[in-house]
Amino acid sequence: MRHNFGSFVKKESLHILRDKRTMLVVMLIPVVLMVLFGFAISTEVNNVNVAVVAPERTDGVSDAVERLAHNDYFTFCGYIDESEIDKELRTGEVGAVVVFATDYDRRVAQMAEGVPTAPLIQLIVDASNINTASSATTYMQGVLLGTQSQQAMFETRMMFNPQMRSAYNFVPGIMGLIFILVCAMMTSVSIVREKEMGTMEVLLVSPVRPVKIIFAKMIPYFAISCVVLVSILLLARYLLGVPMSGGVWGIFSLSLLYLMLSLALGLLVSTIAKTQMAALLISAMVMMMPILMLSGMLFPIENLPIFFQWVSNIVPARWYIDAVRKMMIQGLPMMAVWKNCAILLGMTVVIMGVSLKKFNDKLE
Amino acid sequence: MSDVVISVRELTKRFGDFTAVDRISFDVHRGEIFGFLGANGAGKTTAMRMLCGLSYPTSGSGTVAGFDVMREGEKIKRHIGYMSQRFSLYNDLTVWENMHLFAGIYGLTKRETEVRAVELLTRLNFSQERNTLVGSLPLGWKQKLSFAIATIHRPEVVFLDEPTGGVDPVTRRQFWEMIYEATEGGTTIFVTTHYMDEAEYCSRVSIMVDGEVRALDTPAHLKQQFGAESMDEVFRTLARGAQRGE
Question: If A162 and its partner were Cys, which of A158, A301, B11, B21 is the partner (CB 3.0–4.6 Å)?
């Protein structure tokens, strides 16, 4: 029986290669998502128009404005009069207005000597988009304070992602999503298709062990996912400039583990679903929704209601995305995310065990 | 090896309280076409699954191609061919690729595969279609190809589960000619069908009702026994007494 495994893998690869459309979709989706999330959909501070109100244009004020104007994320639109603030914000000409206090330089000096003083700078921000507003505010504070930050009451530093670039945040999320899509959805659909077409019956009557049929199916999808994984990592590094400071190999090995888990999930779905449509729906609704909502991809888990925080614990993507984020952006080594690895490994073993058992039970 | 290819004694399959197959016994001889008839729900499929090594009998005994249905299911699988009512080759693979796949599944070597595939293609008059995608073949051809591929590893017995469902009469006729040809080579055919005219083609026929084999003989003897004109009449006489519905 040495040939039959090889023949199976070949057959599965042919199925995939012949289905050009699906193949194209699988290869393109990651790229499209990366570009979309990386550039178009962003909550990051980008090109915020800033106007300045300054009663006296002293050196201190000029310094601060200079720093603002030189920053890529803000566009300095010039000085305006206090009376124009409301109009400028309302018309959307500017997204934020910086108002300096009178006697700015002297009061800065006073503060440096430890004399308590009223706020020196007022930020008036268009908060119709709260995400942009809050990140702009935080970043602008950092820029304006600049070297004087030691004089402020407290100092905030945005580590790892000081510009709060959303690509950094989305790349791990997309990875968490895309592998479930490729591995789980496609494997389950492909297994169920054989059941629907009646070919599974013939395979089961053949001397091939059912487990072999399943693993032969997983191999080509695993290979495709690896290609997708490499392309995502390349795009992330060179197109979006994600640092990957924790080392690519850690991310890569963790992703391989996640791929296994997705394949196991696909097998599980295939044992439940009777039709390809059902397999698709289960994959889309039962697996994608939690990943989008509960994995921390779009919404921080800490912001979820307690109940959903609990539920999020059983969403594998949560642990994966969290770990990738740590390795990609914070630059932690794989050792630092051992807990996530262990959880993912445990989940893989359990899901694979359950689905193989279910698959075998179904045969009887 | 003996002349008996399939031998079954008191074979029973129960699912909980439900007895799907109730103590059936019969022998099938080498080179025979054994018709396995029964209404839907009579237990045909379950019986056939046990013979193919897909399902364990609850009790009773049996051998297929010399192997025990209780303990040697995996060995049985290697020595039988199977073709189901649904067309079950891969539409997105070519004729040649389908042949190679199943040859590989049954462990034929590369050489054997080449020889066997060419032989089958020639017999089917299919040589010019070897690189055609199976999906683009007409149904009748597909059906014939299915049968050919079910015999690619020269099995001792081929199980045909309603092989001619949805096929036109001419193709059905051609299909049966193929079956005859195969039996001349010593292959045994175990076939289920709903077409009573096909039952007439069989060497012997068994009719299952409510999980039991109620009649088993040559079509001629059965007609005589039930005083019937055709197998259709025999079948209806027996099936009328069925307790179970679909």
Answer: A158
The reply to whether residue B77 touches residue A3, judged by beta carbons under 8 angstroms, is: no
Identify whether B47 is part of a domain. Answer: yes
Q: Which residue in A has a C-alpha nearest to residue B104's C-alpha?
A: A4
Residues of A within 8 A of B89 (CB-CB) are: 199
Task: Confirm or reject contact between B84 and chain A (CB < 8 A).
Answer: yes
Asked if residue B137 is part of any domain, the answer here is: no
**Residue-wise pLDDT tens for chain B (246 aa)?**
458 999 999 999 998 889 899 999 999 999 999 999 988 888 888 899 899 888 889 999 999 999 998 888 888 999 999 988 777 789 999 999 999 999 988 888 889 999 999 999 998 888 888 899 998 988 888 888 999 999 999 999 999 988 887 778 888 888 898 899 889 888 999 998 888 888 888 999 999 988 888 889 999 999 998 888 888 888 888 888 777 754
Q: In angstroms, what separates the C-alpha of B226 from chain A's closest C-alpha?
A: 36
Long-range contacts of A342-349 (CB under 8 A, 24+ apart): A343/A319, A344/A254, A344/A257, A344/A258, A344/A261, A344/A316, A344/A319, A344/A320, A345/A257, A347/A261, A347/A316, A347/A319, A348/A257, A348/A260, A348/A261, A348/A264
Q: How many domains does chain B have?
A: 1
Which H or E run includes A219? helix A210-234
Mind listing the domains of chain A with CATH numbers? 2-41+165-358 (no CATH), 48-151 (3.40.1710.10)
How distant is the Cα of B59 from the closest Cα of chain A, in angstroms? 15
Inside any domain, residue B129: no
Could you give the C-alpha distances from B133 to A190, B136, B168, in angstroms and in order? 19, 6, 22
| CATH code, domain carrying B218 | 3.40.50.300
B78/A197 Cβ within 8 A: no
Contacting residues of A for B102, CB less than 8 Å apart: 206
Task: Give, in degrees to the nearest 5, the angle at Cα B214 between B62 and B40.
Answer: 90
Asked whether residue B96 is assigned to any structural domain, the reply reads no
Asked if B44 and A169 touch (Cβ cutoff 8 Å), the reply is no
User: Which residues form the domain of B24?
Assistant: 4-88+159-239
A194 chain-B contacts, CB cut-off 8 A: none
CA-to-CA separations, A45 to A41, A51, A165, in angstroms, rounded: 12, 16, 8
| Out of B54, B83, B100, closest to residue A7 by CB | B100
| Count of CB pairs separated by less than 8 Å, A with B | 77
